[in-house]
Amino acid sequence: TIARRLRRREDELAALYRSVQATTLTLDVPDVLNRLTEVTTQALHCKAAAIRLLDRTGSHLDVVGAYGLSEEYKDKMPIEVARAPIDQQALSGGTVLIEDTTHDERLRHPDKIAAEGIRTILIAPLIGKTGPIGVLRAYGGVGHHFSTDDAAFLSTIAAQGAVAIENAQ
C-alpha cells in the first residue's frame, strides 16, 4: 500500500511537470488548451478532459479545448452558467465530483453524456488573477472512479493551467 501510494505520488509529480512543460512551451492559446487537456487525461488515467472558459459577459461557458472527446460532443452549444449548477459550484471555488452520471439529476444532457461513454466527471475551477475564468473537467468511462487525491491533483493542474491560459491570452 505504501509503495503504491509512493508510486502514485511519483506519477502525479511527473504529470504535473509535464503539464507545466506542455503549457509553457508556447503562447498559442489553442495549443496551450489542448496540451493541458491531454496531460490531464494522461495524468488521471481517465477517458477525456475539457476546458470551458467563461465568455466576455461571464454568463456562458464555451468548450475551448478538449482531449479524448468526440467532435459531436465538443461541438455543443455554450453552456449558460445560470442553468448549470455544477459549473456554478466549481466557479465559486469548489471541486465537484459526479460519481455516477446515470443518476445525477443536475446534469442537463444525460443522454449525450451516456452516448459519449462518460460515467463520472471531476470538475475544478480555473481561477485567474481577477477571479474564475472557467473550469477544467476530467471525464471517466465505465468502471473509472475519481478519488479525493484525484480531486486535489486536478485542482493543482487547474491552478497552473489558469496561469498558463492567462499568459497565453
- Terminal CA distance reads 43 Å
Tell me, rounded to a whole number, the average pLDDT. 87
Strand order of the largest sheet: 3-2-1-6-5-4
Count of DSSP H/I helices: 6
Number of separate strands: 6
Radius of gyration: 15 Å
Pairing-aware structural class of the strands and helices? alpha+beta
Strand residues, percent? 15-25%
Structure description:
This protein has helices at residues 2-24, 29-44, 71-74, 85-91, 110-115, 148-168; strands at 48-54, 60-67, 79-80, 96-98, 120-128, 131-140. The protein starts with a helix and ends with a helix. The mean pLDDT is 87. The longest helix is centred in the first third of the chain and has 23 residues, at 2-24. With 169 residues, it is an alpha+beta fold. Helix 1 runs antiparallel to helix 2 (29-44) and helix 1 (2-24) runs parallel beside helix 6. The protein is 46% helix and 23% strand. The protein contains six helices and six strands. The protein is globular. Strands 3-2-1-6-5-4 form a six-stranded antiparallel β-sheet, sandwiched between helices.
